[in-house]
Every structure is written in structure tokens, then in C-alpha cells.
Amino acid sequence: MNKQLSRLLLSHSWAYFVALALCILAAALLGQYWLAAGEALLTVLLAVLNLLNLRRRRRAILQFIEHAAAQGQTMAGDVRSMPLPMAVLQADTGDVVWGNSLFIQLTGGREQLYDIHLHEIFPEFDLAWLEEGKSRYPREFLVDGRRYRVYGSLIDNEAGESTGLAALYWVDQTGLLNTRDEYLASRPVAAILLVDNYEEMTNTLSDSAVSAIAAQIDQKVTEWAGQVPCLLRKLERNRYLMLMEERDLPRLREGKFAILEMIHEVRSEQGVPATVSLGIGRDGEHLKQCYEFATAGLEMCLSRGGDQAVIRDRTDFTFIGGRTKEGERRTTIKARVMVGSLTELISRSSSVFLMGHRNADLDALGAAAGMMALCRKTGKRARIVMDPEHNMCQKLLERLHRLPEYEHAFLSPQEAAQLVDSESLVIVVDTNRPSQVESQALLERAGQLVVIDHHRREADYIEGYALHLHEPYASSASELVTELLQYGVEMRDILPQEAGALLAGISLDTKNFAVRTGSQTFEAAAFLRRAGADPSEIKKLFQNDLPHTVERYAVIQAAKLYRDSLAVAAVDSQLDRVVASQAADELLNISGIETSFVLYPDAPTGRVIICARSLGEVNVQLILAELGGGGNAAVAGGQVEGTLEEVLWRLIEAIDHYFET
């Protein structure tokens, strides 16, 4: 064995020493004796070092083979019979010092492996995993169409000392990995497709016209589903079930679920285009769970306004589409039904707490004030949970404080957390995300939860609610609460100041009825006006003093135009939140600007605040969702970690991604 190993490790550097000897001879013949003597001394030193290195490498490999044999590793009497491709190399440099016959075959029949760097054989291979103490290469390794798992370890001698060598084994797992991939590719995927506005398109048409529209929809759905081998069945007149394999889903995703656009070609006699919501369930343990995931995805679609696709797996939601302007697709039936259930919950609870989002605005406080009227009607006293210092509705808060009915009605989040119990009812208004509520402790300790919100639903939706009124088509939470009041109380049960608070909330989110308004928005405003809301008093809630007005116009002056119609104002100083919101609104009054973003650092939190506004063509909620923000298509906001410059660049990237995908 020693003789064989000596031959394997025989240095091939003799040619270099011959060349050095010739140089020494030439120097001597030319009379350069000192140069010849120096070269001779250097050559002797190099020869000694080369010999010592060869002996060290031979000793280390022999120790490894003896150590492996002692541990029972199969050598079959000769290292050449190793059943796996194996190589020994220097761990620090990656130089190959030995490889068995199978490893030579793996490298394409290279006979001269020694003193060659592993990267010369496999350029993409690295050894960082060995230095990290791992026993397996983190990825599969592909050689000539075969798929290998590479295992290895550093070699120690019998004394436990490092030899500086490492052993690698290539295990061919092509069959196993191909079988695994085929199993994963053949996993079931369920999809439910729903025509969102089928009723609106057909409720006034004749039977023949309805049949014509249904046939067009069937044709579009069948044409789109025919792109992949799948099972398509029509469950109801506006609902389809689609079953396919996991391998087919990427093809549909690459096409951005073209049915979302294709279906728009189907129009009613009034010119209203059809829209669909697509819920997709994947990664389930079985087909039933995939169907449940698809149902959850469809519900998420509808709660976000429809006209989009949502993929649901075991861990998360993925959103595709949803850029079109949301139309009015709701009725008052849900509000009528909810009033009875909500009144019963209020009556049974030991206490009622009303809570909006952090830094409450006029819509959050207005909706809470409206719910106070409903609670009084049931004979139950309610408390509003709100930070008295950090809010954007200080004027309205002061007005309500002066009312006898609101004496001791406001609690700080800390005070409310001490009073809530397992019989308490918490009603959350104007937000659906647990991370944004005024007090998360209140959510965790409450016995019952109710959610009333109009923002598009996010993946981290409040869970465990008993009731929820979630209408992304509504202008505001105040509008939804007003609908509840119309069916739950008499007009005289509403205080004029509460009616004014609700109308102020609607005015805020609709920009004085300029955006996101439908017929029910104006019906709610008319009801509140009859209940005593005074428009002149509401106007005063939106007034600023002179310093804040100057500050607002300074923000507008700092704005820069991006992509021709987007205004972005990044202000490197603390701003009042109301001023920032008003500046974002004011930018939309400038000709040619359809979308605005205002960014500024928030010293108390160390984050950057973003206020986004749109006239409706651009969905700012989708843009800010990439930065962790929320809202709806016309009004959105967020608090983002990082410096102002970092967040600004992230916002620009999100804007580019929105327009380029």
C-alpha cells in the first residue's frame, strides 16, 4: 500500500528542477559564480520542502485509510473498490490529493487528478459547508444528467488532531430525486372561479340575453382552462371548479392568470364588464384540504374587492391582480342581518370596548362614536379605547369630551387592558389587522370580537371574531356604521355631534365625496344630515392653523414628479400626521398628478411614515403592501423600518414593480 501510495503521490515537479539545474550550469559557464551558488542553494531548499510536503501528504492519507478501516468503513481490501465516488483533498485549498476509480469516472476519466484544484473539475462547487461543520453539500450536484448528494467531513488523526484533509463522497440519488420531483409535481391543486358581478350583469335581462352572456363566460373560462390539462366543472351559474396538478400552476402564473383580463371582454347590455375572483388552494395534505384552501382564497378575494386571484397554501396567501377600480357591489341586507346579531352580543356582554387603529383619525373616531349610539340603545355603556396624545382627530375628541354622554367614555389602552375580562365585547373599527389596533392586549383578552372595516383584507386578518362587517366597496368605516344605525336605532337616539363625527369620517375618506363614493355613500350622508350633522362644523374639523398651513405647503414644495403623474415628497423632518395627510391630498389638486406619496421620519418610533393618495387609476394599497402598509386603492399608509433614503428607494422599487408587472 505504501509503495502504491508513493507512486500516486510522486511529484511531477522534476521538470522544474531540471530547468533550475540548467540555469545554474549556464550561470557557471558565464562566470556568474555567486549567482550560480545562490540558485543552487535555492534549488536545494525547494527540493527539501517538496520532499517534506510529499511525506506529510502520504502520512495523512495513510492515517485516514487506517482510521476508516478501524471504523468498519468498506474498503473491500483495496481503496479502489470503494462503492462510491470518493476523493480526498486539502480542506483549505481544495487541491485533490487522491480519488478512487469511481471518482475518476465521475470527472470524465481524468487520470491526472493530483495537485489539481477541485474548482478546475467542478467550477460551481464550493467547500464553505465543510468549514461550517456541515456534513452535506447544501444543494444537489448535477453531473452528466445524474443527480448527486455530496457528503463529506474533515479528517482527524487518532489523536483527534486535524490533518488538514477532507473526504468527500458522491452519492447518486437520481432515481430517488426524480421520483420525489414527480410526486411534488403531481400534487393536486384546486381552484374556484367565481364571476363577481354576475347578478348585476343579468338581473334586468331577458332569459335569452342571460343565456348569451352565460355562454360567453363559459367560452372564456373553458378557453383559459384549456391551456393546461385539468378537470373543469361548472358548479353553479357563476361558479366553476378546476382541478389540476402542481406542475401546471406555474404556467398559469406566468400568464398572470389571463382569465382576469379575458373575462372583461364579456359585457352586459349596459357595457358593464364581467369580473372574476379566483381562489387557488395548493400544498394541502389531500384534495379536500386543497379545496378548503381554495375556498379561503376566494373569500380573501371577495373581501379585497374581487377581480383578482389569491393562492392559499399551508402558510400564507399570495395575491395576483386586484388593480381595477372597485365598483359598488353590495346591498344593505348584510347590515340588516348584522344589526340583530350585534345587538344581542352587546346585550350579553359584561362590558363593551370600541377600538380603532393606532393614531386614530376622524373615520376611526367617527365610527366608534356611531357605535356608542347603538350601545346606548341597548342599555349598555361602552368605552372608547384611544391614545389621548397620539391621534389625528384632536378637535373632534375635544368636542365629544364636552358631552355629558361621553363623560369618562375614553380610556387609554393601558386602562382598558386592566378592565377587560372574558365576558367583554371588543368592537374593532376601521382596521382589520391585529398589528395596527390601538391595543393588541385587548384583542387577546376579550371574550368576543366584532370587526367593522372597509380596507382591503390582508393575510394577517384579525382572527377569532364572532361577527364581522367587512365591505371593501364602502367608502369608510363611518359609512358602514351609519348603515347599522339606520336599521338599529331611531334617528332621535343619535346625538347631533355623533352624526357630525360620522359625516366627518366619511368626508375624510372620500376627500369630500370626490373619490370612492357610491349611491349608499350619499344615502348615508343624507341620513346623517337629517340626524343633525352640521356641514359647517365639520368644515372646521379640517381647518389648520397658520403654522401647519405653511408646513403643508412646504411639503408640497418638496415634491418631485416621477413617471409623469406621480408626486413623491420626502421630507427629512418630523411632520404632524394631519399635515402629511393633507399635503398628500393637496398634491392631487395639481393638474397632471394622479397619485401622491408623502414620506417623513417619525422620531418616537424610529420609522418612516408614508401617506399615499390616488385618484383611483393607481392602486396605492398594492404598492404599499410591498412595504408592509395597508389601506385601499385610493388611500393607503404605512410605517416602514429604515432611514428616509432607504425607504424612499424601496418605495420607488415598489412603484416600478407595480407598473412593470
Structure description:
This protein is of the alpha/beta class. It folds into five domains: 2-70; 79-179, PAS domain (Beta-Lactamase), CATH 3.30.450.20; 204-321, Reverse transcriptase/Diguanylate cyclase domain (Alpha-Beta Plaits), CATH 3.30.70.270; 333-541, inorganic pyrophosphatase (n-terminal core) (Alpha-Beta Complex), CATH 3.90.1640.10; 546-660, Roll (Diaminopimelate Epimerase, Chain A, domain 1), CATH 3.10.310. Helices cover 43% and strands 20% of the residues. It contains 25 helices and 24 strands. β5 (146-156) and β6 (162-172) form a beta hairpin. α19 runs antiparallel to α20. Mean pLDDT is 86; it is low at 1-10 and 69-79.
Task: Map the helices and strands.
Elements (H helix, E strand, L loop, with lengths): L1 H7 L5 H16 L3 H38 L15 E5 L4 E5 L1 H6 L9 E2 H4 L6 H4 L9 E3 L2 E11 L5 E11 L1 H12 L2 E8 L2 H5 L4 H19 L5 E6 L2 E7 L3 H6 L4 H4 L13 E6 L5 H17 L4 E5 L4 E5 L11 H16 L3 E4 L6 H16 L4 E4 L8 H8 L8 E2 L1 H7 L5 E5 L10 H6 L2 E6 L13 E4 L6 H12 L7 H15 L8 H12 L4 H7 L4 H12 L2 E3 L3 E5 L6 H11 L7 E8 L4 E8 L5 H6 L4 E2 L3 E7 L2 H17 L1
Parallel strand pairs: 10-11, 13-14, 13-16, 14-15, 16-17, 17-18, 20-21
Antiparallel strand pairs: 1-2, 1-6, 2-3, 4-5, 5-6, 7-9, 7-10, 8-9, 11-12, 19-20, 21-22, 22-24, 23-24
Helix pairs in contact: 2-3, 13-18, 14-18, 14-19, 18-19, 18-20, 19-20, 19-21, 22-23
